[in-house]
């Protein structure tokens, strides 16, 4: 037996099943569709390039962050002004109380001197 | 959907300007031209039509993605043989498609002189007992009728390795055929 001849006979080329080309094309089509849907962005696929959409999203996030920062700074400034005002009112109250105390003390001293 | 299909049929993923000039036709024609070779390599290595078809389809999918890299018709032929062979070897190693029981091998007729209609089947089944790389060597040598140098280039191994493994595979197969014949006598 000539093994090499027999191998050539046994391993000769065969036709693939009917419709092979069509099935390959369908697989390619499915893969391409999947790639297109993966590349689309949000509810508006292919209306804007991906980098533009990404830039817009980043800008929106930046704007929100900036707004929050400004609000926080303003709030802190307001709180600080309120604190200064409260401090001034407290000082005024202390000053008035001190003056009243001084007046009372003077009156007490005057009365005790007259009694002597 | 229809547009995608048209572009597939027209050329490839980069069909607008980068389409290789050597493709004289559409991608479907490329598949049609090489389907027999790719499917036969897969079929002779894996032995199962459904797995062979699935793997062949994947080879053409990969070709579609890399179409722009192919430089010529001979490069395409070499690429298809290399990718198909490597994918088959990987598939067999992953799925351990190696062990075939001797009982499943069709028995040859008792007389040596009579032509044996079952011998091709016997050989294909016995080939399934060889290691994946040796099977690939035999397919490239006897199906594709490549020389040892071309096989070395397709498989990416040294020429000396191809020669020694081919020799080993043939000897191993010859022994298995003899054992299989003796079982009948």
Index terms:
heterodimer, A: 116 residues, mainly alpha, 3 helices, B: 185 residues, 8 helices, globular, disordered N terminus
The helix/strand class of chain A is mainly alpha
Which residues of chain B form runs of ≥5 with pLDDT under 50? 1-5, 12-18, 99-106, 108-113
Please give the count of helices of chain A: 3
Q: Greatest contact pair?
A: A-B, 27 and 43 residues
Structural summary, described in words:
The complex is a heterodimer of chains A (116) and B (185). Chain A has 3 helices and no strands. In chain A, 7% of the residues are buried. The radius of gyration of chain A is 45 Å and the shape is rod-shaped. By secondary structure, chain A is mainly α. In chain B, 67% of the residues lie in helices and 0% in strands. The radius of gyration of chain B is 19 Å and the shape is globular. The longest helix of chain B is centred in the C-terminal third of the chain and has 26 residues, at 159-184. The A-B interface holds A 1, 3-4, 6-17, 20-21, 23-25, 27-29, 31-33, 36 and B 1, 4-5, 7-9, 13, 27-28, 31-32, 35-37, 39-40, 43-44, 49, 52-53, 56-57, 60-61, 64, 112, 119-121, 123-124, 127, 138-139, 141-143, 145, 170, 173-174, 177.
Set down the secondary structure blueprint:
The complex is a heterodimer of chains A (116) and B (185).
Chain A: H1 3-10, H2 20-39, H3 50-115
Chain B: H1 2-10, H2 27-46, H3 49-65, H4 73-95, H5 119-127, H6 132-143, H7 148-155, H8 159-184
Helix pairs in contact in B: 2-3, 2-4, 2-6, 3-4, 4-6, 6-8, 7-8
In short:
By secondary structure, chain A is an all-alpha fold. Chain A is built from 3 helices and no strands.
